[in-house]
Amino acid sequence: EGHVADGDAQQISMKALLDPPLELNSDKCSTLSPVLEIKLSNMEIRTPLILEMKISAEINDDVLSKNLVAVRCLRSDMKEGPYAPMALSYCYGGTIKVQLENLEPCMYIAIVAQGQNISYPYTVWDYINKKITVGVYGPKHIHPSFKTVVAVFG
């Protein structure tokens, strides 16, 4: 309540895109979240929109890692970019909060670990601890011959 004018409505659609553009994954940048597509039906708002996300990654707990790499929130009006940094309202542990400004009907948001002064042969992966959780859901009893293959490429 109070987010939009009385009598107005706001529809918010969010979709997690699991195939981030190449710009977001390189030796100096790695996605920590899916790219989030946010669609809004009403741009006339009274109070800001706050996006909160939980991530399963953190910068390693040493001085070098904390000086070279930072967690950033990037935004674009197009899925393929270009992506620009946004100011983080809150970043602690696995919780990220960001205030969405300059609203557009469709926006793309991604949380990344980004380092500027990383030298070869090192990559941003050397300075972060990223956890991946995979769940397999099915019937109450899964047949013993059922096999699951998970491949993670870095």
From TrEMBL:
GO cellular component term of the entry, any: cytoplasm
Q: Which PROSITE patterns match?
A: ZU5
**Membrane-spanning residues:** none
Question: Which residue ranges does the record assign to the ZU5 domain?
Answer: 1-112
Superkingdom to which the source organism belongs: Eukaryota
Matching InterPro entries, A to Z? Answer: UPA_SH3BP4, ZU5_dom
Record's PANTHER family? SH3 DOMAIN-BINDING PROTEIN 4, SH3 DOMAIN-CONTAINING PROTEIN
Q: What is this protein called?
A: ZU5 domain-containing protein
Please tell me the species this chain comes from: Micrurus surinamensis (Surinam coral snake)
